[in-house]
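#struct-pred

JT: dropping the chains for the assembly here, can someone run the whole complex?
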Amino acid sequence: MARITLKDVAKRAGVSFKTVSRVINHEPSVSPTTSEKVNKAIAELNYVPNLAARSLSRGRAMAIGLVAGWPVNSPYTSTLIEQTLAESMRNGYNLALFSREEGIAKKIVNAYLGKQVDGIILDTNAADDIELVNQLNTHNVPSVVIHPNCKNGLKHTSYIQINNVIATRQAIDYLIELGHRAIGFVCYKSGLNQEDERKRGYRLALTEAGIPYRDEWVYQGGGLPYQVGFIGTTQLLSNQKELTAVAAATDELAMGTLGAIRQLGLRIPEDISVVGFDDISYASMILPPLSTVHQPIDEIASLAVKHLIDTIDNPNTAPIDIVLPTRLVVRDTCKPPRHAPASLSAS
Amino acid sequence: MARITLKDVAKRAGVSFKTVSRVINHEPSVSPTTSEKVNKAIAELNYVPNLAARSLSRGRAMAIGLVAGWPVNSPYTSTLIEQTLAESMRNGYNLALFSREEGIAKKIVNAYLGKQVDGIILDTNAADDIELVNQLNTHNVPSVVIHPNCKNGLKHTSYIQINNVIATRQAIDYLIELGHRAIGFVCYKSGLNQEDERKRGYRLALTEAGIPYRDEWVYQGGGLPYQVGFIGTTQLLSNQKELTAVAAATDELAMGTLGAIRQLGLRIPEDISVVGFDDISYASMILPPLSTVHQPIDEIASLAVKHLIDTIDNPNTAPIDIVLPTRLVVRDTCKPPRHAPASLSAS
DNA sequence: CTGAAAGCGCTTACAG
DNA sequence: CTGAAAGCGCTTACAG
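RK: done, full complex below.
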């Protein structure tokens, strides 16, 4: 089965192959009759354009690259991949996936220079990528960075993120409005923005509600998400009997929190309320469904892809620096505490 | 910054551009002196070959496509993607991801004919893809199918899978050896091979140990994994007080099983033993770590990629049809039942 | 509205 | 061990 090319179609349709090219690319200047003839030939021959050839002559790969966080199979990363993939295909672009590894900066830049991808989406969540971002910028690679852990004020790079302080406050405020005053907080210990900001949000919410912040209410651990959540919650609830609610800095942590509460023989939400962050798909799939703060991964992904393509189409497109809103999703893990203090809710 | 090409390098190194091409492709017939000169020029100019051009002249995309299951962010699918990605990059191939959607068959075939990918890995787990597999085969697309739900005896298609009956028996046999006789089984209701085979494995293990199979010990539900596991286990344990262990047909189901057991005020593994299947990464990350049957996704992925590349390199490569072994992973969710019957273990 | 030419950056035979 | 030619299948200006 020899490859069918433009010329074969042209011959069959009785036109020049340039005209066929015009039809394929939907250029306006083709008479309906001709275009119909050509389309018929294309269908009969089952012709498919060779993208490599187009890529070469057009200087476009029609593919974008995604550098995702590790592990790829974490709920956050895999969802980001899923949504980025969907949006790319919707826009006629292929998605090439790259893993974060030794020498990735060079690999990415080469993929761009070698025209395998037209631009890069980089998820910096929980990663330190200054070097990589700088490289992309130096080589003028159209790129958008998701959840930047730092911004270098670069001219060619766009940023998309959420406000973790506000996000956390949405959850803690909700708990406070329900009447909780003794609220534990479980998070990772790390120097990463996300963790620091979420902890700051927790503290701020408490303080502004007139509840003094206490170090004993906060557990910061290192290790695997579920285990940090499980161990942290067990410790918090065993030592601080006054706690009526636990907020976990991520839903993955919250999974451990739920397990720990049950293990302690307590009920959710009757005895202890729980709130998470991120709204990973598990949040709504477990029992009881987890109340959490929704991080709009789908919007992030779709905005990232669209803006990247805009930048590819027109290199003069101004970079964006956008903060997307988060929102509280009330499900079944929160309830007023058994002995609610007389009207505490402020705003 | 104009693109740097073979010719620029050739000029700088003072050789013909053909020689540069030889050096890049590590062809043996180049004198060390020349090759050194060329490499120097490449480094100085920061030259990167244009893959689109190479693709065009070589007829190779240096990329393989993966059609993964939906949702992409399930533990199984995302891990498969992760491992396929790693192995592809290790072999110098890019990975293009495709989502299962309307018209995917045509899209995939076109990606191949249009030389965006050199071959396809198709994960059929929990999907009915006869049409797609047939299409790939008809168009001679090098392809390997993972977990085929059916095999058409096609000449150009390879298969990689596990034996779900044996896998399940490994788990149930283990429980039986520990002394359990009343073992519940939670699974999805569906006509998919995987479910049917796992249920058959459960039944077989029981029967061969001289334990009569009982329908009341099996829960088959539809819906979200965690919820099926949770509801099924709650129901099983509430109605069949004799049960001392629960086997879940997948680890995702098992997550729900664990939640349900705790909710009932029972302990794992003191009161109830639990075993899962698949060994998703969560299995070892939760508390208590889940005993389960390991499905070698990494081996599956790496074998799939390697065989696919072999087939791409040499179209006469004979298709493979391989069943990879699974193995029991003992962690902390199983224990002999409280009142173990006097020596039951057979083999 | 349509065609002939040149070129995208590489590689594959063919010579020498 | 190295070079000159032709071509991969398209597209981009340039003509008519």
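JT: nice. The two ends of chain B are 72 Å apart (CA to CA). Chain B touches chain A through 58 residues (CB under 8 Å).
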